[in-house]
């Protein structure tokens, strides 16, 4: 006869209750985690390290190893000479509280901007190409911080005191590409008749999005701030395809016919110039 004691009815009931409870908790945990993971997707305003691939490709390539952030915090220019310890790093690896995919590197210029290091130490250490070395290497084969494209500075004219006629050139002076990425545009102040406006203007082709201007801005909420390039330049939406851009055209050529859904039946009538109907051009 077996020595194993069979559970009594009450014990069996307890066992089944516990099991149901645990499975329930597991399912609940799964649901909570799914919701959490969804929430942990990056905000479209996330700024990635220098030379990062486009967001979708970047997320596919980044293995969340943290080598870029480690190189950034330990770069020699970041070591405090008095304490011998590193100061806070530009690049951070996202935690649950951040509005960024967990474990991926990002930076917030208002906390710590990118100092556009000459040797860009965060990029060559990337083992997967999520940070694309070629995109910051010039024709001579040298690393070139001017080729970084982390984002673009955007000025909010209603908040920038230079647009009120107050003299402020904090962003202009701190820019590592002074007079190239940010210029000051002179204008007459009609309100006072005596003073001049010197308004900051961004050169989108030169600005790298380092964020030194955002950190230096004197207004309570920075009137100049960095946005990812596609946001700052106005993302037109997937349904617009540039006929003159071969890469963009490939999106249509490579598209599977089953993915194309047309809900509006094409009219068989002649094209009419309805906007100009009834207009007399004489
Ligand atoms: S280039 Fe910017 S992100 Fe890279 S190591 Fe230097 S400060 Fe950090
Ligand atoms: S080094 Fe490259 S793969 Fe590693 S966390 Fe940074 S971007 Fe991702």
Structure description:
This protein is of the alpha+beta class. Among the domains are: 41-148, no CATH class; 151-232, Alpha-Beta Plaits. Helix content is 24%, strand content 9%. It contains seven helices and six strands; from the N terminus they run αααβββαββαβαα. It has a two-stranded antiparallel ribbon with strand order 1-2. A hairpin with a 7-residue loop joins β4 (182-188) and β5 (196-202). It is globular and about 80 Å long. The model is unreliable at 1-7 and 15-36 (pLDDT under 50). One iron/sulfur cluster binds at residues 49-50, 71-72, 75, 90-91, 114-117, 120-122. One iron/sulfur cluster (SF4) binds at residues 49-50, 71-72, 75, 90-91, 114-117, 120-122.
Main traits of this protein?
single chain; binds iron/sulfur cluster; disordered N terminus; globular; two-stranded antiparallel ribbon; Alpha-Beta Plaits; 7 helices; 9% strand
SSE topology:
Elements: H1 9-39, H2 55-61, H3 67-73, E1 92-93, E2 105-106, E3 152-155, H4 170-174, E4 182-188, E5 196-202, H5 212-216, E6 224-227, H6 229-232, H7 246-253
Antiparallel strand pairs: 1-2, 3-6, 4-5
One iron/sulfur cluster binds next to helix 3.
Task: Sum this structure up briefly.
By secondary structure, this protein is α+β, with helices and mostly antiparallel strands. It is 24% helix and 9% strand.
Helix percent reads 10-25%
Give Rg in angstroms. Answer: 28 Å
Beta content comes to 5-15%
How confident is the prediction overall: mean pLDDT? 84
Structural class by sheet pairing and helices: alpha+beta
Q: How many individual helices?
A: 7
